[in-house]
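forwarding from the other thread:

> can someone predict this with NDP?

sure thing
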Amino acid sequence: MATKRVAVVTGGNKGVGFGIVRALCKQFQGDVILTARNVDLGKKAVSDLNAENLKPEFHQLDICDMSSIETLKQYLQSNYGGLDLLVNNAGIAYKAASTAPFSEQAEVTVRTNFTATLDISNVLFPLLRPHSRVVHVSSMVSQWTGKKCSEALKARFLDPALTIDELKQIMQNFVDAAKAGKVSESGFPESAYGMSKVGVTVMAFIQQRELNSKDDIVVNACCPGYVDTDMTSHKGTKTIDQGAETPVLCALLPEGTDIRGKFLSEKAVQPWP
Ligand code: NDP
């Protein structure tokens, strides 16, 4: 019996993630699993898509909870024997008006956007089958923030020998610098969200290098554009379906594509930073 192909989207209950699930239900050949940390919100999203005659599966996933990630892995292993597409969309951003101290914003934002995305990768990558696609939903802000990093940091991000452990250390250095009030003098820009997304983008570059020896497994980072969601307080100019377009392009890259280990926005590879 042929194995059933399967896609997982994180943070699928609303916003860009919901738009990505909707598009994949129409375009991905196989099952699409909408995941959400809140079961009620996730099931409500599935039922909204059912009303459009789309049929995603649901599975709970809190990207910051290792046991939740492990449970999803077991589910994929038992029901599908592997994984063909992983879209790491879930993320957070403090509002500009937030009064939370910068040190807290740095720690929490890096923990969710960078560390949790890396945790999922580490747990689920062993399931990836030949021709799998991995999409990290990063941001244009990672380009702007990357450009503002010190020359020494920029050189490290672009060093083809940079490892995931070294990247983790750089992100930890940023959080430590935020706690010590020494962000600028350590070469980092004052953007918790921006640095977290620098980490996500550079993670994709490194992971692709690590996976290059595998059979056509492709990892890219991308920006959805400025999208009308809760994160942007609905100021974004794109609809969630338009925001899904670049992530979905990355998700459905054809066999043998040379778009690998890149940063994309507006459906095209962009220079980074
Ligand atoms: P929303 O705030 O609308 O949605 C974020 C999603 O992530 C929600 O489903 C949320 O779940 C989920 N999420 C947050 N934390 C966790 C967690 N620990 N575990 C599981 N799910 C979690 O944001 P957007 O749709 O706007 O953003 C989606 C992605 O796109 C993010 O990575 C964002 O950084 C990126 N992006 C967005 C842009 C925009 O203009 N909107 C621009 C550039 C990048 P819950 O509902 O439970 O909170």
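The longest helix spans residues 102-124. thats all i got for now
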